[in-house]
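Self-study notes.
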Amino acid sequence: METDIVIGIDIGGTFTKYGLVNRMGEVMGENAMPTKSEEPIDSFLERLQSNLDGLINEIGTTAIKGIGIGAPNANFYSGNIEKAPNLGWKGIVPLRKLIQDIYDLPVFITNDANAAAIGEMRYGIAQNMQNFVMITLGTGLGSGIVVNGQLVYGADGFAGEIGHTLVHGRHRIGGFGRRGVLESYVSVTGLKRTAFKMMADMVEPSELRDISFNHLTGVMVTQAALRGDPVAIATYEYTGMILGEALANTVAHLSPEAIILFGGLTKAGKYLLEPAQKHLEINLLPIYQNKIKLILSGLQDKNVAVLGAASLVWEELDKLEKKTKY
């Protein structure tokens, strides 16, 4: 008897990851390919189909129930990728329809942070939570908001862009030329910029001082902090402070049970979490203090990109099944 599976696809600016996932959250097979979004979307779809078909044949299954896709600026309602800043396909790309034309399966699409939130709710640390916020800390800052057990999409499908909220009193230029956006401080990109600010402001020796901006990576800053480098530690303290202050606003809006962090910056552990928790509590109203858990994802060692996209399918299929029962 074949096991029902779904296809999870995560489209990134550099790589597209894909895999086959069963209902229990087991990734039966996975792989990746360059996105190459500078090429026409048709070329991407041809390569994706070839790679997916190869993986399906390798696993030896035909019991595919649907396809879930996480992508930048992906709109759950319309099924389109809309004006994604880090993809070469400009304007509006009707990705859901294009994929359905190939596979004739139910296709669901959302942004990667929303997909991660659904994956966390279905398979991770949020399995028993009804109200939480997922924060993904990578090249940018993404977020998925769950209220009363439901992901919040908003009126147009683009709710939850916490990374593009404004940080009071901060003026660093971020995406789209806007000043003071959270993502320009709390992200891998923001971490690099802060590291150079700290090197200018501090006199302590640091292993980061001999690395140019273009060669510096978030991993380097994290590893330096874990080795006790004072500049790297100060960089994370500043990053955690900005994050904690901003999340106090999120708590005032939503009163979540927890805020869950996922992504490369969380590898710094206490160097990020402790200042973030401290400045979260300092800036909370008394009615919220000592209630909000700031915790790491329960899916850190798994392919959350693929698992989250696949979870979107299972979540929507379960909803459809409940509707047909009643």
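Second protein, same conventions, sequence then structure:
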Amino acid sequence: MVRRLQIAVLGSSKEICTKKAYQLAEQVGEEIAKIGAITVTGGGHGVMEAAMKGAKKYSGITLGILPWGKIEHYNKYCDVIVATGIGWSRDAINLNSSDGAVIVGGGAGTLNEASYAYIEDVPIVAITTSGGMAESLAGIYFDERKTEKVIGVNTPQEAIKVILEQIELKRKKSKRPGIKKRQIDY
């Protein structure tokens, strides 16, 4: 059985999302859908909504993992909704459910998600031209373990190209049983 890649899009909520970040996130969603992967977000507005909107333009599948306990609070581009009821701790679910992550803009919540991706050794790419946390985190390791470097890129197309390369490298290097044999369609 072939499993689709799941790529998380992390970034600015509606309150701090710039027009530029929204446009870039929409393009990221388009690129994810073009490769047949699933777009994973927190299911809210801002960058999350934009990425899912972009994915839907290319008939992509979207997964919204909500912090709230009710499925009523989501953006209209969610295909599948998981209402966790655990607040922002849901970031763990977002990243554990993703093969890689793309940061677009972002603030404190995005920093939390990116930190979790780092701890769980999930490949991370940041679109530096989107500003916010993406610009601040590009090119860094979070600590001396140097498990995942946040790779800075300039465009959504470059983000997807690089995240695919990083996912493939991770699969080849993995010492976890079975990961090399796992089939992922992309």
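Instructor comment on the second fold: Residues 3-180 form a domain with the Rossmann fold fold (CATH 3.40.50.450).
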